Amino acid sequence: MLRWLARIAWACWSPVRRYVRMSKDDGGDDDDDLPGSALGDSLIWWRDLEKHSYGEFSFAVVQANEVLEDQSQVETGCDATFVGVYDGHGGPEASRFICDHLFLHLMKHAHEHGTISEDILRSAFSATEEGFLKLVRRTYGIKPMIAAIGSCCLAGVIWRGTLYVANLGDSRAVIGSLGKSNKVVAEQLTRDHNASMEDVRQELRSLHPDDSHIVFMKHGVWRIKGIIQVSRSIGDAYLKKPEFSLDPSFPRFHLPEPIRRPVLTAEPSVYSRVLRSQDKFIIFASDGLWEHLSNQRAVEIVHNNPRAVCYPSDIYGIARRLLKAALAEAARKREMRYADLKKVEKGIRRFFHDDITVVVIFLDHELLGEKMQVPEVSIRGFVDTVEPSNFSVLQGMNSNPRSIL
After folding, report:
1. pTM greater than 0.85
2. I want to staple 127 with a disulfide (CB 3.0 to 4.6 A). Which of 105, 161, 212, 331 is the partner?
3. 230 with 193: CB under 8 angstroms?
4. What is the DSSP string of 267-320?
């Protein structure tokens, strides 16, 4: 009887939890089945299950750095869904800038052209890069280290049944589709712009034939100019423009010779596809997840576990489950239990794993052609408040593509 009443109470509570969120891991006993007894990690933020225009999504972030360098957002509207994952390095300034500006640039260009397309995504990335470099130029004199701050940038938009994805760096979008015998199959939608990849090293050498040190191994890791692993990013101005070079007082970022041409670029890899009935979900995540989970392992975790169930003690959102599976693997690699890893404070935690962001977008195909009543909201990782989304500019595009969206 009590369990039945609890289920009714929870059903009544569910519509409210969008605005009254319980998002920090409180040490409950809902995850004893996970490796390493993944209980009560205070550095994890989450939203277990929310609505978007084509289904539901799950969102989770874990902090490892003293200051969180991952920034992320999900924007929902009645006609479209936007996901952004921005994995910063050198500091949070670039990833925060992207989170504040990329989606707005996307909406501006979509409004001007009356559509969303691969070229619109490229334009939004270009405008964001240009804006951040202007910020660097304004502040370089008083804060030269701003030139060494950058961010990977992964963005995805679902609009009119088509998925558009653009990427700089090594964050990754992976789609889970049903194959033969109803087995889920992983397909990576993005290209990793990381010097660990042979094709990236070849690309760099072909672009810089006169620089024998454009990419080399340092301390067992392939790095561009011996400094950075990613070959494309927003920011990192010191590797793009000689005017932002850093002197020997910044030994980690000092280049013995000034650059003749940009070493890194902000030209994204862009991909689009019409979503098919066998496409069941998309995982967007920073590289901290993929360092510990393969694409196939990740999609199997999503496929083999429920999104969420009604009874409170059983609720365990799939993004959080992916996150903790990765953390359990990070602990295993250090020959420790996750129960011990979760006690490690931020800052020190970075020696064990990176900041990690995970967004899982479920694709409910019966909704793809429907006008869903979905709140137009903006949800940001590790931010408690929910803000209105600027997706309102998309309204009306279906009837008049030149009007305000």
Report:
1. yes
2. 105
3. yes
4. --EEEEEE--TTEEEEEEE-HHHHTTS-HHHHHHHHHHS-S--SSGGG---HHH
Query: Does 222 map to a domain?
Result: no
Closest CA to 196 of 174, 216, 211: 216
What is the rounded CA–CA span in Å between residue 322 and residue 38?
Answer: 11
State the pLDDT at residue 307. Answer: 80
Is a pLDDT exceeding 80 seen at residue 403?
no
Average pLDDT over residues 7-34: 37
Helix then strand then coil, in percent of the chain rounded to 5, is 30, 25, 40
d(CA 14, CA 292) in angstroms, rounded, equals 32
Residues 6+ apart with CB under 8 A from 339: 36, 37, 38, 39
How sure is the predictor about 55, in pLDDT bands with cuts at 50, 70 and 90?
very high
Strand (E) or helix (H) holding 92: none
Helix (H, G, I), strand (E, B), or coil: what is residue 61?
Answer: strand
Residue among 243, 241, 249, 201 nearest 225 (CA): 201
Residue 302 placed within a domain: yes
Helices 93-113 & 118-139 angle (0-180, nearest 10): 140
Tokens for 139, please give them: 């502040």
Residue 141: give the domain boundaries: 23-194+230-394
| Whole-number Cα distances in Å, 256 to 23, 245, 337 | 47, 10, 44
Total domain count for the chain? 1
pLDDT tens string 75-102: 999 889 999 999 999 999 999 999 999 9
Instruction: Indicate the average pLDDT of the chain.
Output: 88
For position 99, which CATH number holds? Answer: 3.60.40.10
Quick one: pLDDT at residue 180?
85
pLDDT score of 121 more than 50: yes
Is 69 a member of any domain? yes
Between β-strands 387-388 and 377-380, what pairing exists: parallel, antiparallel or unpaired?
antiparallel
Q: Is residue 360 part of a domain?
A: yes
Q: Does 309 have pLDDT greater than 70? A: no
